Amino acid sequence: MERRFLSFKSYHWFAPIIVVAAFMAATWPSLVAVGHRWSKLDESYSHGFLLLAVSLVLFIIHFRRISPKAGFYPLWLVPLLAALTLYAIGSILRIQAAQQLMLVPLLLGCFAVIYGWQQVKGFIVPVGLLFFAIPVWDYLAWSLQMITVWVNQLWLSVPGIDFEVEGVFVYLTGVGAFEIAHGCSGLRYLLVGLTLSVLYGELNYRRGVSKAAMVAMAVFLALFANWLRVFIIIYMGYVTDMETRLIDDHDAFGWWVFAFTLLPLFLFGRWLEKHPREINAQPVAGHSTGIKGPGFSGLVSVSGVLLVSAVVMAADTDLTHGETHTLTLSPMPGGHWSPLYQRQLKDWAPRVQQPDWVYLGTFFNARSIEAGESPDITALVSLSSYEFQRTGREVIQYGNRLYDSRIWHPQKSYPIAMDNGVRLQGLTLSLRGGNEQLHVAYGYYVEGRWESDQLLAKLAQLHGVFNNRSDASLVAIGLHCQRCDGKHEITQLASQVQPLVQQALDQKFSR
Fold first, then answer.
1. Model-level pTM?
2. Number of Cβ atoms within 10 Å of the Cβ of 99
3. pLDDT tens-digit profile of 456-494?
4. How many folded domains does the chain comprise?
């Protein structure tokens, strides 16, 4: 017995390793996608690899403390298969968020089959911590942005600042404008705060009430830190006439403000530790409940299910490669628009990460030419399309920028409603350090549906379930003129260009 390759005793140590290996084989494309987001240090999930290491250490500590015995708990195959089915549906429909959302439940389900509830519940926090690094939290960003705008609207009214608010834009009268963008939502601080509070509670508390109170305080302080950061930047922009360095260094400044709020958080945590009810709480017993069923049956069942699913979904693993192709398009109405053969319009063009299909054209309005002068009205049409959305190739992602904030800053935003019912978003940009203005109309055409809001464009991916489409496009139209009503002209141009662009996209991607 002592010389067997895998003794019954060593089997209990190797069981979680084998399960994790099978889990990785079944979900490898999604794991690669998650790792890709973790590697981007300027996004909300850059703490992912560190959190993975912390999760692994906590798992090993708890494993050594309770010495769980692997067995077979067949009832847990039902939730495991349910999670795997949802994961497969996400793969079939190419909804990556649905796949990533199932990663943590899948892993816990695998452990539940071989350990049962009494043993696996101690691993919920070590494994569940990874959920705070799964890139599905972006759906909260828009709500957090609007809350930040609302709070700062209240705070800015106290010192008597003359300002207006439209959507996520704060306009300081006679000074400039600020956009409460995705990076200003406070999502990154919220995720780090949640991670720290859950980890602190797991290591120091016995009562669930204490753990919940710590998490609630962390959520409030993380959001408060972001509100305070945005307020200080806007206020300093107002008093310095937009010359403060905080505008350019807003990321670093935000982390300093967040670090400052950690002090009251851990003081509160220390106070909870000394609470009489926490001191008198009984520790959770750490013991194994024994084995139910044949020792190897659970491991074989879990590994078999995962490996079969890996083979079935193997055709969907190539999610990150592909070339960018040029789309043939005639987006401008005939008659008076002629090509300029330039790649930018007054140093402006959208920046889009790795689209599958692109079109970019610049034009001038021949009717705006006066004798001996260059054309007054010039335009740019940009179309960036993804055949289907996946990691690094999503129409709504952190790296996609409508404009370069180092060159342009928003002056005014407004809706553009067209006769066919389509609604685009209008935006007036001003050149930093200059007097140039640019008028932009943009929208997202996702799986046959137009949206002007980023969150709705993200959710529009579900619409493709009913029409067999998976494409997503960013359409941006820019216009520059010196002697015209820019808002009127961009509205007229957008109403002419949008139907032509939609027709081309429908012909390209409709099945």
1. 0.75
2. 27
3. 888 787 766 667 788 899 999 999 988 888 899 999 999
4. 3
